[in-house]
Amino acid sequence: MHIFRSAEKEKIEIIAGLLQQAGYRISRIREVENQFTVTARLEGRTGIEDEWERIQGIVQHFDIEVWAIHE
C-alpha cells in the first residue's frame, strides 16, 4: 500500500487518477491538517522494484511532499 500526501489537492487527484488507470485501488482523498492524503493498493502482483520505480517517477514529477510504502 502506498500513501501520498500533499498540500495541493490537484496533485493528489492527478496521482490517484493515474494509479487507478494502472490497476491500483484508490481510497477517497482525505484532508487532515491542511494535507490531502490518498492511499493506493496494487491489485495483483508485480515486482516490487518495478512498482517502486514507476511510483517514484510519478512522485518526483509532481513534487509530492510525502510518499510512504506500507506492506
Topology overview:
Blueprint (H helix, E strand, L loop, with lengths): L1 E5 L2 H13 L2 E3 L3 E3 L2 E8 L5 H15 L3 E4 L2
Antiparallel strand pairs: 1-4, 1-5, 2-4, 3-4
Protein architecture, described:
The longest helix has 15 residues, at 48-62. The chain has two helices and five strands. The protein is globular. The protein is of the alpha+beta class and 71 residues long. The protein has helices at residues 9-21, 48-62; strands at residues 2-6, 24-26, 30-32, 35-42, 66-69. It starts with a strand and ends with a strand. It has one domain: ACT domain (Alpha-Beta Plaits, 2-Layer Sandwich). 39% of the residues lie in helices and 32% in strands. Strand 3 (30-32) and strand 4 (35-42) form a beta hairpin. Strands 1, 2, 3, 4 and 5 form a five-stranded antiparallel sheet that branches.
Mean pLDDT: 88
Task: Label the overall shape.
Answer: globular
CATH class: Alpha Beta
Give the CATH architecture.
2-Layer Sandwich
Which H/E pattern describes the elements? EHEEEHE
End-to-end gap: 6 Å
Number of domains: 1
Poorly predicted runs: none
Strand element count: 5
Q: Whole-number radius of gyration?
A: 11 Å
Structural class: alpha+beta
**CATH level 3 topology:** Alpha-Beta Plaits
Helix content: 25-40%
CATH superfamily: ACT domain
Biggest beta sheet attributes = 5 strands, antiparallel
Beta fraction = 25-35%
How many helix segments?
2
